[in-house]
Amino acid sequence: MLQETGSVWEISQLDLMVRMILAAVLGGLIGFEREWSNHAAGFRTHILVCLGSATIMLMSIYGFSEFVDEMNVRVDPARLAAQVISGIGFLGAGAILRNGNVIKGLTTAASIWAVAAIGLCVGAGFFTGAFMCTFLVLVSLYLLNKGEKYMMRHRRYHDLEITIFDSPGALGKIVSIFGELNIHISNLKMNPVEEDISFPQAAPKMKLAVSLKSAKPEKLLAALEAIYALDMVVHVESGGFDGSLPDGRGTAG
């Protein structure tokens, strides 16, 4: 049992330290899962968000205790907490990345927002809510993530953008590679690439936007390796890779 104080607006030094350490631990648990999964906002980021939120909550409740008896002062512990929830959005926005048609980081942004709520709970002494939220967030990030991947494995799509030299038969060669590996193309768009005016003699290029129905990773990898081997392929972009070989052709990143 933590040391009790004589007023609801006061907190012991021991209780203060326990709450701040607990906020760092709970935030670190969620951050470790994000770090383990190689996401942008990881271990330290989640600790700082949770600890900062707890500190602001503690300050909001106990930092102005000497003014509570003033006639013209109205104490509202929820005011700073509300600003934390709205202000944490800039970190969440920084974790969201877009690569072509693929958007990543939404789950990490949501975990940052949830960690801020956990910090506020710890700072306010609402430990049951903090522990329960931490447990459910970890279940959602780890267990439900695995279950979602398994259940949705036949409904996911892979989006590719392939830049090629516009030569006869180029499109047919790429389509045949997917066909040989039984990879279904659900959508295909072709757009010409604007040429650089400083190189008027450059061969015309075409950009292919390809949407593939979910395939086994080994088949998709084999298809990409076969596409990279084609001389007319200039560049390939996807959510999982984006790069160029020294000779100018696409490579896995």
Descriptive report:
- With 253 residues, the protein is α+β, with helices and mostly antiparallel strands.
- The protein has two domains: 13-151, no CATH class; 157-243, ACT domain (Alpha-Beta Plaits), CATH 3.30.70.
- It is built from eight helices and seven strands, in the order ααααββααβαββαββ.
- The protein has helices at residues 13-36, 43-62, 78-87, 89-95, 106-124, 127-151, 170-180, 217-228; strands at residues 97-99, 102-104, 157-165, 185-193, 205-213, 233-238, 242-243.
- Strands 4-5-3-6-7 form a five-stranded antiparallel β-sheet, with helices on one face. A two-stranded antiparallel ribbon has the order 1-2.
- A hairpin with a 2-residue loop joins strand 1 and strand 2.
- Helix 1 runs parallel beside helix 6 (127-151) and helix 2 (43-62) packs parallel to helix 5.
- It is elongated, with a radius of gyration of 26 Å.
- It starts with 12 loop residues before the first helix and ends in a 10-residue tail after the last strand.
- Residues 240-253 have low confidence and may be disordered.
